[in-house]
Each structure stands twice: as structure tokens, then as C-alpha cells.
Design brief:
five-stranded antiparallel beta sheet
Length: 135
């Protein structure tokens, strides 16, 4: 079976092209291009090592600006995560793509109620001898 996206490939990302958990990409450049049958100038984000681009709307521009800065010239080399979601437009729900700062790997969390583990930044030095309270 051939999907519609396979039969009619596009150089631009669609929500259906992305895995549910999102995809981290690095911005290579931003260009204004004439796109579509209405021949409107739109912002297009290009990514390093990626064949597809993202037509950037005002919402995604603002989301990138929050963590990458207001000057789009500074965005080159920034990593962003693009992910599929939905939005409401014209009273209907539509698939869309949103951007966010890539999630950083987090340290494993402790189970609730577990005592805190000692760390090297503790203010109390370890005891010198067994039974020594350390003060």
C-alpha cells in the first residue's frame, strides 16, 4: 500500500511526517521564499542533515525566539524539537507542528518518600570513624 505522502512527497514537514515524541533538528538557515498558489512570501527553516524544511508560522517563530533569541540571525546552530500536535482554527481541530527547546536528559528521579541520597555538595563532612556523628 502506498500512502498519500509517499505518492505526493513534499519538501516541507507535515505533522504526519513526524514521530509522536518529536524530532530534534539543528537550524541551518532561515529564508523567505515565495510558496504556494497564492505566491506569498513565507519564512522557511532549513535544518542540517535533513531533506525537509519547515514553513514557519508566527506561533513557531515566537516559540523559537523564547529560547534562541529575538534575532533570527542568531538561530543558526540552535537545536529545536519539532513535534506533531493539534490546534483549533475556524472552529475545527487541525493537525499542526510546534517547536520547543529540546528536552535535556534528566537524572533518574528517586522514588517518592525515599530518603535523599548523600551528594558531594553536602555541608556535613562524612564521619571519620564508625559511630562518629561528623561534628
Amino acid at each position: 500500500m502506498v500512502t498519500r505522502n509517499e505518492a505526493f512527497p513534499s519538501r516541507f514537514y507535515k505533522a504526519a511526517d513526524l514521530p509522536r515524541e518529536g524530532k530534534v533538528v539543528m537550524i541551518a538557515k532561515l529564508e523567505f521564499e515565495t510558496i504556494g498558489t497564492d505566491r506569498k512570501q513565507k519564512c522557511v527553516l532549513y535544518f542540517r542533515h535533513d531533506e525537509k524544511q519547515l514553513v514557519l508560522n508566527a506561533t513557531n517563530w515566537d516559540l523559537i525566539a523564547v529560547f534562541a533569541g529575538a534575532d533570527s540571525d542568531e538561530w543558526v546552530g540552535e537545536k529545536v524539537e519539532i513535534f506533531p500536535t493539534t490546534t483549533t482554527f475556524g472552529g475545527k481541530i487541525h493537525d499542526c507542528i510546534r517547536v520547543r527547546r529540546p528536552r535535556s536528559p534528566t537524572a533518574p528521579s528517586q522514588p517518592r518518600g525515599a530518603p535523599p541520597t548523600p551528594d558531594s555538595g553536602s555541608l556535613t563532612p562524612p564521619p571519620d570513624e564508625p559511630g562518629d556523628p561528623g561534628y
